[in-house]
Write a structure and sequence with these properties.
The chain is α/β, with parallel strands linked by helices and 507 residues long. It is built from 15 helices and 6 strands. It has a 6-stranded mixed beta sheet with strand order 2-3-1-4-5-6, sandwiched between helices. Strand 4, helix 7 and strand 5 form a beta-alpha-beta unit. The protein is flat and about 110 Å long.
Length: 507
């Protein structure tokens, strides 16, 4: 076949060359010699352009089939900022498919905020700590001006406050964020801590302010902050209240506790608001704040790694927002698919209630019909042929039968229905309700299969089907199913039984 195509190609090329040769001689006969070559070149160029125009759609189709999705692929990002921009563009495509207006708008606003941060690029430092650790005093010392309420009662900072700081030779502005205190009692304290953690997730640099050794609760918070993937510093405040030896001991202890997460030089002493010193016969002496070591460390980190901190933070936020939008789309898809399963399982139950089969031995193989599989696949953007859907349904049906789930399901539902259904309709009711329940198990298995990008997972189809069977037989799920089954199947059967005319008696 290949040899034949090669011969045809050679014949075609020869014919084209012969045609051009004849054209050249014809032009030479009718036109002056000086104009023959330009006219021939124009004709040849026009022929090539026409050939390319005719062949281009075919070539594009061939290359598209050879490399599916190549047209939609993006070049790899050159840096983290480009990666963040690509993630934001992908988020837009996901949000366009989300139907819930409220959730879509909330995610869109967060996406716009991140776009603004990507364009502006301020360095954001968030201070975290208990209400008595001195976060506001530390910010005041760094800004060298009075901000916030210093020395107020614990829990008085109920919302975040933002302040701008300028560092020498640093082109970007620095934003200091004072968060509500953590580890406070009551519902209000938990809400303030949630707000603080939300701000921490948006920071380029985190400062955890403590006034002593890390207690168990504070150590848990420290590890949670370290797990965010952000640059983290630990600030030991109120060093003026202890001697040099005690300060050195605490610093060493804090460095040992935090060595798995941060470097030793990122554990820094500070005295944000030193206590005044009484002066006999005069006004008390107010020592200056001792935050130079902290300020130098912040400046060094921002000068060396500021651009990477911004890029890492933006990329991390983009990925989280992308995960949130995909999760929202996944929940929407699952809800749509569960509605499809619900519709088909009651359709199947209604058919069996009207025309019951001799038995349920083949029900495991036919629990999900091909059309339902096709509709579920379409929700996930997959075009599946009827034959492929039938093969998939048959695979699940055989698995259910092989695991004994068909007989087990019928026995389970027979025990539940026999106690509450009249004997005249119990046989039909059991068969119809069992068909609906097994269709549900199979349908939920298919949803899991498509959620995993058409992959059953390491345990295979057996593990997925068994898991959905176990989940469906739980008390809550079974109670809801039986309640629906009584209204959709059992009660219509009872009404139909009562409406039938009485059988004629003996003559």
């Amino acid at each position: 076949m290949i040899a034949g195509l090669a011969v045809l190609a050679l014949i075609a090329v020869g014919a084209v060359l012969q045609g051009f040769n004849n054209l050249y001689w014809q032009l030479s006969w009718y036109l002056p010699s000086w104009i023959v070559q330009p006219v021939f070149a124009l004709v040849f160029a026009g022929f090539v352009l026409l050939l390319v125009q005719l062949a281009w759609p075919w070539l594009r189709t061939i290359t598209g089939k050879a490399r599916p999705g190549a047209a939609a692929s993006l070049p790899p990002p050159g840096n983290r900022r480009e990666a963040a921009a690509q993630n934001l563009a992908a988020i837009d495509q996901t949000l366009d498919r989300v139907r819930d207006a409220v959730e879509r708008e909330a995610l869109r606003q967060e996406r716009q905020r991140m776009q603004a941060e990507l364009e502006r690029g301020d360095l954001v430092i968030v201070l975290f700590g208990t209400g008595s650790a001195g976060k506001t005093s530390l910010i005041r010392a760094l800004l060298q001006e009075l901000v916030g309420k210093v020395g107020a009662a614990m829990g008085s900072t109920s919302e975040t406050q933002r302040y701008r700081l300028r560092l020498r030779s640093l082109q970007r502005a620095v934003v200091l964020v004072d968060t509500p205190g953590i580890l406070e009692a009551g519902a209000a304290g938990l809400e303030r801590e949630r707000l603080a953690r939300d701000q921490a997730s948006k920071a380029d640099l985190l400062l955890l302010v403590v006034d002593g050794d890390l207690r168990a609760a504070e150590l848990e918070v420290f590890e949670a902050l370290a797990g965010l993937g952000k640059r983290l510093m630990l600030v030991l405040n109120k060093c003026d209240l202890r001697g040099e030896q005690e300060e050195a001991r605490l610093l060493q202890l804090l460095r040992q506790r935090s060595r798995d997460h941060i470097a030793a030089e990122d554990v820094i002493p500070a005295s944000a608001a030193p206590q005044s010193v009484p002066m006999p016969g005069g006004r008390p002496l107010q020592p200056a704040a001792e935050v130079d070591a902290l300020l130098r460390r912040i400046a060094a980190v921002l000068h060396a790694d500021g651009e990477e901190l911004i890029a890492d933070n933006l990329l991390l936020q983009c990925r989280r927002l992308s995960e949130a939008s995909r999760s929202l789309l996944t929940r929407q898809r699952r809800s749509d698919c569960e509605a499809i399963v619900d519709r088909y399982m009651w359709i199947g139950a209604g058919v069996l209630a009207v025309t019951p089969l001799p038995g349920l031995d083949l029900l495991g193989a036919a629990a999900v019909n091909a059309q339902m599989v096709v509709e579920i696949a379409r929700i996930y953007g997959i075009s599946m042929s009827r034959q492929s859907a039938q093969d998939l349904a048959l695979s699940v049906g055989r698995t259910m039968a092989g695991l004994g789930l068909v007989k087990g399901g019928v026995s389970l539902l027979s025990a539940a229905l026999s106690l509450n259904v009249p004997a005249l309709v119990v046989s039909r009711a059991i068969q119809a309700v069992s068909a609906a329940w097994l269709t549900r198990v199979a349908g939920l298995s298919f949803i899991t299969y498509f959620e995993r990008d058409q992959d059953w997972g390491d345990g295979g189809v057996q593990e997925v089907v068994q898991q959905q069977y176990d989940l469906s037989r739980r008390d809550g799920a079974m109670s809801r199913f039986l309640k629906a089954a009584f209204s959709r199947v059992v009660q219509p059967l009872q009404a139909k039984q009562r409406s039938l005319p009485p059988r004629p008696g003996p003559d």
